[in-house]
UniProtKB/TrEMBL annotation:
<feature type="transmembrane region" description="Helical">
    <location>
        <begin position="20"/>
        <end position="42"/>
    </location>
</feature>
<keyword id="KW-1133">Transmembrane helix</keyword>
<feature type="domain" description="EXS">
    <location>
        <begin position="190"/>
        <end position="407"/>
    </location>
</feature>
<dbReference type="Pfam" id="PF03124">
    <property type="entry name" value="EXS"/>
</dbReference>
<protein>
    <recommendedName>
        <fullName>EXS domain-containing protein</fullName>
    </recommendedName>
</protein>
<dbReference type="GO" id="GO:0005737">
    <property type="term" value="C:cytoplasm"/>
</dbReference>
<feature type="transmembrane region" description="Helical">
    <location>
        <begin position="274"/>
        <end position="292"/>
    </location>
</feature>
<dbReference type="InterPro" id="IPR004342">
    <property type="entry name" value="EXS_C"/>
</dbReference>
<feature type="transmembrane region" description="Helical">
    <location>
        <begin position="104"/>
        <end position="124"/>
    </location>
</feature>
<feature type="transmembrane region" description="Helical">
    <location>
        <begin position="70"/>
        <end position="92"/>
    </location>
</feature>
<keyword id="KW-0472">Membrane</keyword>
<dbReference type="GO" id="GO:0016020">
    <property type="term" value="C:membrane"/>
</dbReference>
<keyword id="KW-0812">Transmembrane</keyword>
Length: 407
């Protein structure tokens, strides 16, 4: 707004091609397509996702499947995106001044994106959009439904938000620059826009949501145990362990922000010491999250004594809906690699050392890809728990294994 191109830092080639608002929008639209593919494939292997998330099933054969409804919404979002981007390229032709001046186009699409979720028409996934907004409103303050009211759906969405943490930060940056005099949202991203700690705070919100959900679950178990309603269901320790997992993201983000704005003597620690402390928490968060994915979210036996059980392939579990055993092993490796990569890119201060916007965008895409894969196996695990019995004990949290209704 009120742009003065001369105060804008030089644009990199990737930002000339795909400015920040378009990158944010693209990742959001890809997420809708990815959820449709999740629903589609899981339906093919006879896993009823709507039943697990307590979403109304189709009452008539004339109703289109849930995944097709999701594809329709994704198509509705994709068509104006492609049209807007092509028009932007046609007008700007890679000229930096033109890219800065025509910021209205990508921001107009962001407005269209929001409107598409709120429009009252029912032809394009009306019930799904309503359920999405209702769930988002509940979890946005860390709320979580009871199991019979769709708790599993709340958990899936809240976990997906943690993978979109950096995207949410970039969305704020784009809007902040759009409404800042003398700046353009299509210019070089200024991740200090709005204050030095505003972006780190926004990146922290999804982890705060999951942390509060875990604490709510713990309190529910405690309350039920006092009333005798869940006798023998454990004391809720697994929820506390899960809350601890999400809390390990905060030191990474905080220490990263301190490094980005480091001043000698201000924090009572050298820059090298601050970096080493940050690196420790990066690996703690990555490895703890990886362990939880494998052992608690997917119920695999890789880290337990049961991994050598002859009833199932090494490190897996007895009941599996995906027929290829090698698929499980590949996913474990991919999850480990991308968990570590994402923890690094979750850190705002790395933007100070790495100005390759294309690299940052790639990391965000890879995290959405990791979460997409994670959802397949997390939903499959929940289906196994529901239809085949509880999860096996694990080596570190075996004392809590009776409390299966957690993530």
């Amino acid at each position: 707004m009120d742009l003065d191109p001369h105060v804008e830092p030089e644009l990199d080639s990737f930002s000339l091609f795909l400015p920040l608002p378009y990158r944010v929008a693209l990742i959001i639209v890809l997420g809708v397509w990815a959820w449709g593919v999740n629903l589609h494939y899981l339906d093919l292997v006879k896993i009823d996702v709507p039943q697990l998330i307590r979403y109304p099933g189709r009452t008539s054969s004339s109703h289109i499947p849930h995944h097709q409804s999701c594809y329709r919404l994704a198509t509705l979002l994709s068509i104006p995106y492609v049209a807007s981007l092509l028009l932007f390229w046609l007008i700007t032709r890679g000229n930096a001044d033109a890219v800065l001046r025509w910021e209205i186009l990508p921001n107009l699409y962001l407005l269209i994106l929001v409107v598409c979720f709120f429009l009252p028409f029912s032809m394009v996934s009306g019930n799904g959009r309503h359920r999405f907004l209702h769930t988002l409103r509940r979890i946005s303050i860390g709320g979580i439904a009871e199991a019979q009211d769709g708790k599993f759906g709340d958990i899936l969405m809240a976990d997906a938000l943690t993978s979109y943490a950096k995207v949410l930060g970039d969305l704020f940056v784009a809007l902040c620059m759009f409404f800042t005099k003398g700046r353009s949202s299509t210019g070089k991203p200024d991740r200090s826009c709005g204050g030095l700690f505003m972006v780190p705070l926004i990146i922290s919100i999804p982890s705060m949501i999951r942390l509060r959900q875990c604490l709510i679950e713990y309190k529910r178990v405690q309350k039920s145990n006092r009333s005798g309603a869940l006798s023998g269901q454990g004391w809720g320790g697994q929820h506390l362990a899960n809350a601890l997992k999400y809390s390990t993201a905060f030191p990474v983000i905080i220490l990263s922000a301190l490094q980005r704005n480091y001043e000698d003597g201000k924090y009572g620690m050298s820059e090298a010491g601050l970096f080493r402390l940050w690196l420790f928490f990066v690996f703690l968060n990555s490895l703890y999250s990886f362990y939880w994915d494998v052992t608690k979210d997917w119920d695999l036996t890789l880290f337990s004594e049961a991994r050598n059980d002859p009833d199932h392939p090494w490190g897996l579990r007895r009941h599996r809906f995906f027929h290829s055993n090698s698929m499980y092993y590949y996913v474990i490796v991919i999850d480990l690699l991308l968990r570590c990569t994402w923890s690094f890119k979750l850190s705002p201060h790395l933007d100070h050392f790495n100005d390759l916007e294309g690299g940052i965008f790639l990391m965000e895409i890879l995290e959405v890809f990791r979460r997409w894969i994670w959802i397949f196996f997390r939903v499959e695990t929940e289906w196994v728990r529901t239809n085949r019995g509880p999860a096996p004990d694990d080596v570190l949290l075996g004392d809590f294994s009776k409390d299966h209704d957690s993530d």
